[in-house]
């Protein structure tokens, strides 16, 4: 189904279980996104993939942290995803390259490890998102000291996501007596059969939508900003060659909604879930 029809189906589904007033408030939190899985033949969502070489426009500087180059972790081809996202992205956004300082994998450079010891795990300099117009993007070799991971092409299955139960975005919705006995809003408690819906997103690797927090944490944003004003860009669980480190958690990148509308990806930040 197309996104408009699917969203209408989602609204009807919520209304049948919670009543029309509560459903109208709840679906305002639903965001379109994609479950990312390893692609079979002919299934790849454009250039979307884990690892491989960055897709950058000529002359684009490679992002660094404290003089150490970040590592390319993923590429998302928004041209391939745009029909489902509507007006969420500026026209012509193209490719998004997701970088982070690799201080955990077997390929990490000792200098990256030293930098990681000096910085807080939530330091925004530890990650970057670099866009590239599709018509101008070229595969770009990583500089010395940057880890390179084997490419895994992604298929992208569209759907809608609600915030994780730990996400303070739930504070923006009032469901009244529906949740009187719930200490935390949880979509699986509100709608017990939610995960069975064909358009329900709940994936380890996900583009857009809302982030999940397996450690029971929540988004850590600058100056305790409200997550409702940020758009989630990518959720990346541990891969065969890379993991976030710590005692658990996944990597996320997010961007202020106003920056996304203006296409200013320099304001995108890493928002990892980690202990």
Give a topology summary:
Layout: H1 3-18, H2 20-26, E1 31-38, E2 49-50, E3 54-56, E4 64-65, E5 68-69, E6 71-77, H3 78-85, E7 95-100, H4 110-118, E8 127-132, E9 138-140, E10 152-161, H5 187-190, E11 206-208, E12 230-236, E13 251-256, H6 257-261, E14 269-270
Antiparallel strand pairs: 1-10, 1-11, 2-6, 2-10, 3-9, 4-5, 6-7, 7-8, 11-12, 12-13, 13-14
Helix pairs in contact: 1-2
Would you mind describing this structure in some detail?
The structure is a single chain. The mean pLDDT is 90. This protein starts with a helix and ends in a 5-residue tail after the last strand. Helices cover 18% and strands 24% of the residues. With 275 residues, it is an alpha+beta fold. Strands 8-7-6-2-10-1-11-12-13-14 form a 10-stranded antiparallel β-sheet. The longest helix has 16 residues, at 3-18.
The pLDDT mean sits at 90
CATH superfamily: YwqG-like
The domain tally reads 1
CATH architecture: Roll
């Amino acid at each position: 189904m197309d996104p408009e029809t699917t969203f209408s189906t989602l609204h009807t589904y919520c209304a049948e279980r919670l009543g029309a007033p509560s459903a109208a408030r709840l679906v305002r939190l639903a965001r379109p996104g994609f479950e990312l899985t390893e692609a079979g033949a002919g299934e790849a969502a454009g250039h979307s993939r884990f690892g491989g070489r960055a897709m950058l426009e000529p002359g684009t500087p490679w992002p660094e942290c404290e003089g150490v180059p970040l590592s390319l972790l993923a590429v998302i081809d928004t041209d391939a995803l745009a029909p489902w996202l509507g007006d969420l992205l500026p026209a012509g956004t193209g490719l998004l390259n997701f970088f982070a300082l690799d201080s955990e994998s077997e390929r990490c450079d000792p200098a990256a490890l030293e930098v990681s010891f000096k910085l807080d795990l939530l330091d925004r300099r530890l990650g970057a998102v670099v866009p590239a117009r599709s018509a101008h993007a070229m595969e770009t070799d990583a500089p010395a000291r940057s880890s390179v991971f084997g490419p895994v092409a992604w298929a992208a299955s569209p759907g809608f996501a609600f915030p994780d139960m730990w996400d303070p975005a739930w504070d923006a919705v009032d469901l009244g007596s529906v949740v009187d006995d719930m200490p935390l809003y949880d979509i699986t408690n509100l709608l017990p059969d939610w995960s069975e819906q064909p358009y329900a997103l709940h994936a380890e690797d996900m583009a857009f939508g809302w982030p999940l927090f397996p450690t029971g944490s929540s988004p850590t944003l600058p100056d305790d900003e409200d997550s409702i004003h940020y758009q989630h860009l990518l959720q990346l669980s541990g891969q065969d060659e890379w993991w976030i480190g710590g005692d658990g958690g996944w990597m996320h990148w997010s961007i202020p909604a106003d920056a996304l509308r203006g296409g200013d990806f320099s304001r995108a930040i890493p928002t990892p879930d980690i202990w």
